[in-house]
Amino acid sequence: MRLLGGIIRTVENITSPFLVRCKQREVHTSHSSAVLIDGLKRAQVIQKQLKREVFSMQEQGYQCPQLVTVLVGNNEASLTYVKKKMIAATELGISANLIHLKSSVHESELIDLIKSLNEDQNVHAILVQLPLPKHMCKQTICNIIEPLKDVDGFSFSNLGKFFLGSSTFWPCTALAVCDLIRSTGIESKGKNAVVCGRSKNVGLPIALALQAPGMDATTTICHRFTPHQQLCSLTRNADILVSATGVPKLITSDMVKPGACVIDVGITRIPGKKSMIVGDIDFDGVSRIAGYITPVPGGVGPMTVAMLMKNTVKAARRHQVGLGT
Hints:
The chain has helices at residues 39-59, 76-91, 107-119, 138-144, 156-164, 172-184, 203-211, 228-236, 283-286, 300-320, and strands spanning 2-3, 8-10, 19-21, 35-37, 66-72, 95-101, 125-128, 192-196, 218-222, 240-243, 261-264, 268-270, 276-278, 292-293. By secondary structure, it is of the alpha/beta class. Among the domains are: 61-151, Leucine Dehydrogenase, chain A, domain 1 (Rossmann fold), CATH 3.40.50.10860; 172-302, NAD(P)-binding Rossmann-like Domain (Rossmann fold, 3-Layer(aba) Sandwich). Strands 1-9-8-10-11-14-4-3 form an 8-stranded mixed beta sheet, sandwiched between helices. Strands 2-6-5-7 form a 4-stranded mixed beta sheet, sandwiched between helices. Helix 7 (203-211) links the parallel strand 8 and strand 9 (218-222). Helix 6 (172-184) crosses helix 10. Residues 37-152 form the Tetrahydrofolate dehydrogenase/cyclohydrolase catalytic domain.
């Protein structure tokens, strides 16, 4: 497909500092390893900017941003993600609150809770951690959130505005990917971008963001039904390659155009004595071919959290100050 154009517990200028040369691994005598795009360092810069903004709002007499996260059940990965988000928010001066519900809670109870948070004028941002238990409809729940508080950008209203290019909360991973690409300094306008993965919350928003004004890439989406031979043909011609499938080592060195910018959004936990987190990219092999590459962990993940914080501050500013687009 080608694209055109519970209980509450409280819990710039983008340049080379975010780019680090990978360990030298020679493929050909004329080619050195890819430049590592450091998502952790870039996220720290954004968070420092947000911390100053939160402090400025409070100096002007406004309430500090308040984010409420709703977690249903005890999914191990979700617990880890929520903890990271709570820590990041607290460090920025954002009031971070967690409502942790049992997995057996009825969908109607969750809907009632979200509606009450929508009406609470002290709550500026609402996040429902995904995935939800099987007896709940993700789309129904996400769409109940007031669009002006929907900092994940998953409500029908925000997704529609995002598609149309109107002012809204962009999905955080799409924001993170675009920021990381811009941090390399490469030209994206008119370049071939391939996105592997078409999930409604990650892959598709990334593809839409890459072809949107400001990025202006010619974007192609590949998915599970794309024949492998065709997938290889497309990725080999990609100036920008983004993989968001959750399939470890899906992208190998023979599938990458020399000098390409490779963004790894995938994250898979490999069980064992020492649990490992890996991405979609065969890092050791691809880093010898690509021009730029993100690591897993330490690439898109921390940047996604930073963009969630950015949306949260934006929501609070809109609510209280009437500014921000």
